[in-house]
Amino acid sequence: MQLYATFDHNIYFEMAISTLEKKGIKKENIYAVPLDNRTKERKLFDSIHRSDGTSLIDIGMALATAFSVIGISIGFELAWGPIYWGLISAFIGFVLGVAIRLFTELVIKKRKRVLKGKHMEVILIVDCEEGQAEIVENILWEHFAAGVAKIKKS
Fold first, then answer.
1. Which residues cross the membrane (predicted)?
2. Which of 8, 25, 37, 138 is deepest in the core (most CB within 10 A)?
3. Is there a single domain that holds both residue 74 and residue 112?
């Protein structure tokens, strides 16, 4: 039987390997495969085929709505009237919101990524007997595996 587990490369990963060796799993039956980190920066703008789940216009739309309400209210007393001032203030709010979102994505989140660093993940493959599979799985979960999968050999 083979068990696959993913770990962040930290002390718990090393402890899991040593615990498996203490439980009778031979070194020849334990394989650790480090995954390569992304070398390119992620794209900021989405395409029709790929999206990262972050929106650049969410704050812009909210600020456009709020600014347009304020612009319409003030527009009753100004020369061009409420419709023009509502549209002008909605445009200003949208541009301000997109600028805020671009600033957070390009400056603040990039700074957090640099401070946090990129953690390498490791795939751990363990060959064992079917009787040992439950013990091995429990050991992997106890040492904070991100995920575990079992595959029976034919």
1. 56-76, 82-103
2. 25
3. yes
Smallest Cα–Cα separation from 143: which of 11, 9, 5, 12? 12
Res 47: pLDDT: 62
pTM, two decimals, is 0.55
**Residue tagged 């999968």 (tokens):** 149
Q: How far apart (Å, rounded) are the C-alpha atoms in residues 30 and 17? A: 8
| Token pair of 116 as six digits | 């946090």
pLDDT less than 70: residues of the chain? 37-53, 111-120, 154
Number of domains comprising the chain: 2
Give domain status of residue 97, yes or no.
yes
Domain that residue 82 falls in: 58-116
pLDDT at residue 57 in the model = 86
| 77-94: burial string, b at 16+ Cβ within 10 Å, e else | eeeeebeebbbebbeebb
What pLDDT sits at residue 65? 96
- Tell me how crowded residue 151 is: count the other CB atoms within 10 A of its CB: 10
For residue 31, being part of any structural domain is answered with: yes
Residues 107 and 88 in one domain: yes
